[in-house]
Each structure stands twice: as structure tokens, then as C-alpha cells.
Design a protein that fits this description.
The chain is α+β, with helices and mostly antiparallel strands. It has two domains: about 1-20 and about 65-250 and about 305-435, Outer membrane efflux proteins (OEP); about 25-60 and about 255-295, no CATH class. The chain has helices at about 1-20, 35-40, 65-130, 135-170, 195-205, 205-225, 225-245, 305-370, 375-410, 420-435; strands at about 25-35, 50-60, 250-265, 285-295. A four-stranded antiparallel β-sheet has the order 1-2-3-4.
Length: about 450
Amino acid sequence: AGADLTVAGGRQAVRAALAALRPQITASGGVESIDRDRAESSFGLQPVWTSAGSVGVSHLLYSDGARARATIERHVQTSREQAREELRLDVAHGAAVGYLDVLRARTFERIQRENLTLTRSNLELAQSRRRIGVARASEVIRWENQIAINRRDVIEAGAARSVAEIALNRLLHRPLEEPFATAEVDLDDPALLANTATVDAYIDNPFAFAIFRDFMTAEALEQSPELRQLDAAIAAGERTALAARRALWAPTVAAGGDLTALQTAGGLDAADPADLPFPITRPNPLNWSVGVSASLPLFTGGARRAERTRAAEELDELRLTRRAVAERVEQRLRSVLHRAGASYAGIDLAADAADAARRNLALITDAYEQGVLSILDLIDAQNAALVAERSAATAVYDYLIDLMDTHRASGRFGLFMEPAGLAAFADRLRAFFRDAGYETGPRP
């Protein structure tokens, strides 16, 4: 809302700058009274009371300064709009990552609850072993201790989930502790990983992935609102520098006219001009004037030259800043793409590790139940399974967060693009691969 108000205020600033290039119309009026003796000595030519109303029109025929201000204000408005777009991207990215953080926190809480349930089951198993005389009392106490630890872990996971929900509510401008529903997603849910199908072909093939990074970098440099803000600022700076150079020789030319109507009231009888010893012509009560003027400051104490130098130096600074920001944009995009590639590959590996840990836990549990392995072996296997489950969940959400980072770094969120925009993006991608000599490249 604040950015929208800034843009709306900027539109009025543009209108105000353009207004100086349009005709200006003014109206004025007044009443004047003079003392009686002066009116008498004027032979009635200066009445006691005089009222006047006038209308004036002026128009700048040529003023490079005024034109420059209008052009500069347009570029400044473009910069405001791009700043708003940058804020929108930041909010969308923050909300997406915040939502994924909530899902991850809820998944972690679920995993901790399942681990607590498993520990209670193992406690029951230890109690059964104790009753039949194959386990000592210390074994039961050890599981009771483990239950207390796992309950603490569940409480901490619940607190972390609440913190993530509060952070998301703040981003969505909702009451901070207002509950909301989320879609509980299983780690093996194909719908969760559906979007990775189009990325798979680029990530699994190093050559295609390198071309894909080049393409996304070109897209980011074209779409980045940060760079577009600087482009608008550079355009404004170029016009400022041009106006500073033209100020040395370009005059300001204006046309204007004025129409004034007079109304007099005596209080004294005006003398008849025919009775006067010399001829007098009464002025017409309706007066007008029209003219054209040109002005050019010849010497301003060096101010114009200083302004020209300052504008040139500020323009050079903006260009240097743009190059630096472009490098940061490219670095950010290439970095998040590499992270996304690594986290995508880690999903299957973490899932395999979790599956192996679950199978190992089942074997260790059977062996413990039969008295072959000790309680320490079972606790180690259970902890390993817990770590593997958490790693699998982290791998999925890390990839999805990296995907959101990629959208933000590219300057657009493909999730919100219209079908026509997605089709155009796919066409550009295929053309880029074709130009790179990858004729049989993946089709998005």
C-alpha cells in the first residue's frame, strides 16, 4: 500500500512538471482609492475610486529547463514503479519462503511426534522384556528417560512451528497468532515434486545446465527491477546533463498577453476635456497587451558550469553503480541455480538414506526384541532414523526454497505468470538452446 501511494504521488509530480509546458491563465482584480485633493488636481483623470479586473495568458514557447524537468520526472516515476515491483517480488518471495518454513516446521513437529510414539512403543517392549526376565530395570528407566527427552523435542518443535506461523502472518498482514490451515504434504507426494520435472532435464545434464544458467542470467539482467530502476535513473541523469549543457546557450522564450478592464467612480465631477486649455483624450477603460520575450543568463558566477560538471559526475557514478548491481544480479542468480541443482539432487539421496534408516531400524528393533542387540543399539538406530527423516524433509524444502530464490533472482515469479507469458518464456528458452547448438535440448 505504501509503494502504491508513492507511485500515485509520483503521477501527480509528473502532471505538475508537464503543467509548466502548457498555457498558464491568471485572473486578478482590485480596488484603489486616492485622496480627494489629488483627484481634483487631475482634472477628473484620476477618480477617487478605481476598480480593475484583468486576465493574463502566458505560454513557454521554448524552455529546455522546463522540458528537461518533465522528462526527468517521467524517468523518476519509472524508477518509483520499478521500486514497487521490487517490493512486490520481495513480498511474494518472503511469503512463499515463509509458507515453506511453516510446512517444514509442521513436518518436523510431526516427525518428532512420531519419534515420541516410537519411543513409547519401545518402552512397552522393554517393560515386556522386564516382565519375562530378559531385561533389567535400568533398561526400562533408560526408555523413560528417552521419552522425557523426546517430549521436550516435541515441545520445541511446536514452538518453532508457532514462530514460523507468526512470521508468515506478519508477512500476510494478518493477526499474528491467527491460525490457518495448510495442505499437509507427504515427502513422497508426487504433486509436491511435480514442478521438478521441467528442471530435471537441465540439472541432470551438465552441458544443458550451463546453457540454462546463461539463459536465466540473460533473463534476469533484462527483467531485474533493481537494474530497471538504475536504467531510469541513468536516463534522468543523461537528460539532466544535457539540460546543463544547453543552459549555456539555449534561451527561454515565452509569449504572454493581458486584458484589463477599468471601472471608475468619482465622488467629484470630472472636468470636460473641451473646457481645458489643452487637448486631453480620455483612455479607453479596456486595455490589452501582448508580447514575446526571450531571456538567457549571460553570467551566473560559474553556477551553470558547476551544474554541468556535477551532472556529468553523477551520471558516471550511476553507470558504475549499474555495472556493480548487474554483477550482483548475475552472481545471485548463478549461485541460487547451483544451490537448486545441488538440493534437487539431494532429494533422492536423502530419501534413500531415510528409507535405509527405516529398514535398519526395523531390523534392529526385531533383534532387540529377540534379545540379540542391546538398548543402545536400538537407541542409536532410532536416532539415525530420526536424523534421516529430518534430512529428507529438509532436502525437499531446501530445494523448494532454492526454487523460490531462483524466481526472485530472475526478476519474475513463474508461478504467477499468465499462460501467454509462460509460452513466450518457453519459446525464448528453446531459441536460446538452439542458438547455443543444443538442437535436441529439453523442451520445457
